[in-house]
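Field: sequence (string)
Field: structure_tokens (string)

Example rows 1 and 2, in order.
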Amino acid sequence: MAVAGAGLGLAQAAEALGSSEQALRLIVSIFLGYPFALFQRYFLFQKEVYLIHLYNTLTGLSIAYFNFGTQLVHSLFCVLIQFLILRLMGRTITAVLTTFCFQVIYLMAGYYFTATEHYDIKWTMPHCVLTLKLIGLAIDYYDGGKDLESLNPEQKRFAVHGVPTLLEVSGFSYFYGAFMVGPQFSMTDYQKLARSEMTDVPGQRPNSLVPAVKRLTLGLFFLVTYTLVSPYISDEYLISDAYLEQPFWFRCFYILIWGKLILYKYVTCWLVTEGVCILIGLGYNGRDENGKPQWDACANMKVWLFETTPFFTGTIASFNINTNAWVARYIFKRLKFLGNKLLSQALALFFLAVWHGLHSGYLVCFQMEFLIVIIERQAISLVRDSPILSAWASITILQPLYYVLQQTIHWMFMGYSLVPFCLFSWDKWIKVYSSIYFLGHMIFLTLLLVLPYVRRALVPRKEKLKKAE
């Protein structure tokens, strides 16, 4: 339950903007990161680290209270329990497993007891971000107790060697620039930030104003675009009788456009929060080969790739980058002992689906993503290895046609996959899927069965290729 004091004014403003009060509180909260970051940048740079932790804790808690009122006790409780786990269980696998079970079960319980048929902005939204952060902390703390020779370069970079204090864990958890919607970052990077080491000029404030403003401006562009267009392309229309009465081609085209637009609200939030992280220095990622500072450590979006890629894998690589990197680092790669890459990938996607929520739509969405990625990789391999198909694909004059066709297929079935993700409940997404005859499932399941035979027919055996040479 949000704070009631400012509720009347915000409710009126939200109504005037055609938004919900909770959505407006969220937007206000992520933009508040900029004045908070400016204060920390100019008044707390190179100050005592406990002041940084205290400042981040208090500003984060104020944001939590502004949005959810006394329900912020859920995050406080989980942060305290996590600190006790680290202190009492130490750098043990028991601490990691206890952390994983407790934090995930607490989040699942939150989803269960607060579930509705709509997407509501409630305390579970930032809590899912916090859950990943605390699990990652436990694993990095565990790695910090291992022999350095047993760690890979990535694990060495993120391993936590010291013993974090309660105030340090709180500052890490409640950092205002990432508390509500992310991005994910490690305790080691946060500790460097607290020590004023996240800068391109050692001993001086980071030269990050311009990069931060660029991401903010880009975020505002997507915010304006989404605000102007969303009243005409909505979730509600997808399940309306008016949509069902439209011809088949229109229903498919609407899903294509809707799927592209619906992601802009996430793009907006991540670009704005990335700008906050860059402004304070947390986005510093060293220098490139030319010595130019990089500010993409907290990037959750590769905007150009997102807008131009014709591939599903390209969209996945450009969207929600930090969360995907977290899952790869702490779930997928840690399942290496299974000895099966495909199984590890399936389990990682299952974790992502459950982490998003308990609605059936999440499972269907990530199952569809898994299937489409498999088919896309097989299709790319087929075109590359088949002399006939590769010859056709290399015809220059046909490249624009291929690109338009790829983009159409790409966003049609990206939107198709997002239908259950955004509509959540079974009765809603099944209604939309039925209206287009489960087109995505029909096509990609058929391709899964047919492509091996097509490959056998179009790709010569290696022995034949050697003779031809």
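Row 2 begins here:
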Amino acid sequence: MPLVTVGSQRLLLPVGWSRGGRKSRRWGGSFPTGVRAEPDLHKAASMPRCVGLTPSPSPLCLLQMRSSIPGLGRVMVFLAAALASASLAVPEGWGEEGVQYGQVGTEVTLSCAGAHASSPVQWKRAGAAALPEGSAIRQGALVLPRATLATAGTYSCHGGDGGLLHAVSLRLGYLPGVPFVSCRASDYENFSCSWTSSVETFLPTRYITTYRKKSLTGEEKRRNKNGHVGPCLQDPSHPGTCTVHGSEFWSSYRLNITEVNPLGSSFRLLDVTMQAIIKPDPPEGLVVEPIPLAPRRLHVSWKYPSSWPKEPHFQLRFRLQYRPIIHRSWSVVETVNLSEVITDAFAGLEHVVQVSAKDFLDAGNWSEWSAEARATPVRDPATTVSEETTTDASLESLAEEPSQAPNPEPINRSDPLEKMAILVSLGIFAFFVLAAVLVVTILIWLRVRKHGKDETKPHNFLVAATHLKALPTEAQIL
């Protein structure tokens, strides 16, 4: 079993392998440029023998994997094998004929197709008078040691008569890095993931995106022993994103985002729980309106985001923030309703209002804030004259030093209805206090009176006894 090396990566090949539809090659034959065979190693003998340069494994390969690797490992190795074979494919697999790829910092060899072994060969670089420093010609091939990005370009080999034999475009770059991946669910039926590359490779790049459902029911496990594996669908109009449709809110998923370029591949595995990544879209249809005859009130209403299914079991709660346009600090109110009345607005000042949403049971994260909506509360007719006399300097000082209190408005701008409510409350409170004092006073008076009566009873008894003793007895009368 030959062990083939491509760049810095090693790959164990079966006896026969195919590349791009070419005729099978066998151990001891020639390999493509940049690929070399090494003697079989004892350690390599235990490696899976179904990893080749053909992206689609054969049925024999699949059977061999099923018998050697149990459970989930079979699926993961299958995916890894397919990705490795795709990443190690020669440049033709990337749809660019006459292009050869190389890794920066390594030795790159350019072969001269059509040259005879005994014929002299001359190499030239387009747009340059000389070849890169340190380059050498060995058996008709151009060897470029420690290639850099500046080494890239178009090279051509010529025969002894100066005739063109072969031309190749050399593109240099780096191996893929582990991509950065994040996932988000805007509803409880679908979730999407986005990624960015961690390394600028300077080479064409593809992404393979799959997922596996982790928590399976007994029936699902019997139907599919390896778990439910499917593609995370990519949208060409939104590069760098993929979507899993028909997900389950109480299930967990494992995402595999693999970055592939002509030099190799790198992947990121990310475990996703729907409850943790749920993040609704911002509420829609935000409307702010002043309330007539209420100088300090604004009526705010909004709608559920259109992406959130309206089901009774999955509700949203909302967070409202508002401020006068001249202030920097926000006031925040939470509610479960689709409307709210702001009661401490500044009369006559324009206000900015935004709203966000979150799952009712506090799962996941708050949505982004909605687009701003603005409105101005009506002015209080009783204070219109005094407001007209306010100078610009006082407004500027108010803007520079915003109050942290939710209602820094002067007293003369207060709502008459609020004044009346306060007076009524104070009156009721005073009534209850006076009633309590009166009851306590009556109880004390009754107690004192009862105590006085008890003290007079023994005194009267002694007086009566004294009078009886003073009366003459019958013997004395006789």
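free_text_note (row 2): The chain is about 25% helix and 30% strand.
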